[in-house]
Design brief:
The chain has 216 residues and is α/β, with parallel strands linked by helices. The relative contact order is 0.23. A hairpin with a 2-residue loop joins strand 1 and strand 2. Helix content is 33%, strand content 23%. It has one domain: Rossmann fold, CATH 3.40.50. The strands form 2 sheets. Strands 1, 2, 3, 5 and 6 form a 5-stranded antiparallel β-sheet that branches.
């Protein structure tokens, strides 16, 4: 499904940051493992079409992501990718339901209200769907971000450090949600983390070079 080959990223006044090749197939569970500063977030951004690499190519179903125009790349991302960032980016003026529905609006697809209802129920958010983010707990906000990421049934689900700030019990809950939601649509799951507690959840482990400095 996705191949990222010969990827390097330019850094100001520093050598290129280079990454191992990555191949992702349907149903894969891939972890990008490494400590802070090894480039996990940078590589996720490249895969998501958000950061153009200095060298190499990211191909999605043999199509070069960075050969697309910025507008086409935005549309591609909205239809094919679901992203859960460290910063959840829930809009404070919108309700939880409106924040989830925003994924469909941004991708230019129809709002399937019944699917939003199903996600709200599955993630235990149905009774709080009309609340705004500041009236939700951190865990509820994170579940809302997961719901938004999977609304359009993406083929590839990306998550950046989803468990690193959580205790053991809540880390398990979040991973249960990510794995279950990916499995529901047969999506591949790629998680960037330094959290070794969750390694058993993955079919592929990509270890990034801890000696590389200056990366996100």
């Amino acid at each position: 499904m996705l191949d990222a080959r010969n990827i390097s990223v330019a850094r100001k006044n520093a050598p290129l940051l280079t990454f191992p090749d990555l191949s992702v197939e349907f149903d894969d569970r891939v972890v990008l493992l490494g400590p802070s500063g090894c480039g996990k977030t940078t590589l996720l951004s490249v895969i998501a079409g958000l950061l153009r690499p200095a060298t190499g190519a990211v191909n999605f179903h043999v199509r070069d992501v960075y050969a697309m125009s910025p507008r086409a790349r935005d549309k591609w991302r909205g239809k094919n990718l679901g992203c859960v960032f460290q910063t959840l980016h829930l809009l404070p003026a919108l309700t939880l339901r409106q924040n989830i529905a925003l994924a469909a609006d941004m991708a230019g697809t129809a709002r399937y209200e019944d699917r939003i209802d199903q996600l709200l129920v599955k993630l235990g958010l149905a009774e709080k769907s009309h609340r705004k983010p500041d009236a939700l707990s951190q865990g509820e906000q994170q579940r809302a971000a997961i719901a938004r990421a999977v609304l359009n049934k993406p083929q590839l689900l990306l998550a950046d450090e989803p468990t690193s700030a959580l205790d053991d019990a809540n880390a398990e809950v979040v991973m249960d949600l990510l794995v279950a939601q990916a499995a529901e649509t047969k999506a591949a799951l790629v998680v960037a983390t330094h959290d070794t507690r969750i390694l058993s959840r993955f079919t592929k482990i990509i270890r990034l070079d801890a000696r590389v400095k200056g990366a996100a």
